[in-house]
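Deliverable D4.2, example record:
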Amino acid sequence: MKLKTLMMAGVCALTPLALSPNASAFCGFYVAKAETDLFNEASKVAIARDGDRTVVTMASDYQGEASEFAMVIPVVDVPERGQINVANPALMDHLDAYTAPRLVEYFDENPCEERRRLEEITVMARRGGAPLPSAVAQKAEDLGVTIEAEYEVGEYDILILSAEESDGLITWLNQEGYNIPDGAEETVEAYLRRGMKFFVAKVSLERHDGNAELRPIQVAYEDEEFMLPIRLGTVNVQGKQELFVFAMTRNGRVETTNYRTVKLPSDMDVPVYLKDEFGDFYKDMFRHQVEKENGKAVFMEYAWDMSWCDPCAADPLSPSELRELGVHWLGDSGPRPNESRPPLLRRPGPQAVDVFVTRLHLRYDASTFPEDLKFQTTGDRTNYQGRYVLRHAWRGDYEQCEAAGEYANTLVDRWDTEATTLASLTGRDIDEIRARMREEGMSASGLGLEGGEPKPKRKWWQRLWGNREE
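Output generated by the structure prediction step:
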């Protein structure tokens, strides 16, 4: 048995309104997002936290026979049946999509038209303008293990266990088919010394509908300590694991207190050829950033008020979806103020949904993350997103006006900066990046620039039949 432990886009015209400090809406095109399925061995945990009230939703990435699945999680107390639930997997998928790092693109305008419009704006501005058999229970008791509670929740059989010693607990779990690996005794003993219980779940084949995807398990509890146990997950895994934490509070972003919380580099211009390679780029970028932090940081990929997004990789979650994920502090289920307005009149800013979501991503093993994750709610409601930008060059007549010629001569420097940025973000070889950009026409020769000057403009009839001489 394999043991899984957890521990709109549109174009904005440049108008006087666009110069207002309050008008900060995204003005390009949303292209792609980097969801969790880019990464192998990835688990997702959503945490709704308010005061000491917590609801944890755990989605496993387990692939295989349902009969081979098992989950073991340390918990602070014995939950009642009503504190355990199974969730619709679509909820986690939606939360993943909404918070995913995103790729956006902009298209440069004709510099001649842009300069004229800026001049007009300047003029306007100046004008002011099931039960276990008794034999099983007896066997547990003989090993110093107590079955504190047992529940049937959806397709899962769930037990809450306490134990006198780690050896007895591990022996019992192995006898029951959970296959706790060698080396787990010290970690289990540490949890037992803290008085923690163990939440264990297996799939009931009688109640399982045969679907390959297992539904997330939810637990509601109260605890002053805001933490997530991950150490058991490092015992039985070869190599690194990925963990995504989606923390929802009413007070602002969530950070780890016993590990560094680091924002991923964001709002960086990258070469436009990455449009069809965003997944590969993001995996390389995340790997490189992990290496730069010696594998010991928790990375923030998104932090935003749930009521809006800019740009939107997916719509914000509805109040009913949020309540299903444990956001118990929401009020009535009526439409949000923004939803009652026509689309063109909806305000691009925070609305009356008192939920702030933080997406954290870590790649971990026992050596880099020897402790469970401990969190704090910071109260910081500053919005942040992992966002990467493609800027498409205007390809027109660079002799059309003086501004067009000046624009052409800036593109080579811009593309070199993008190449340097990509190399810095991912660790890729910069010479290979530049060679790829030349293939895509992002170079002086691709612009028709020789010696830093545009080539002479071709006659109109030469553009019909090329350079052919009669």
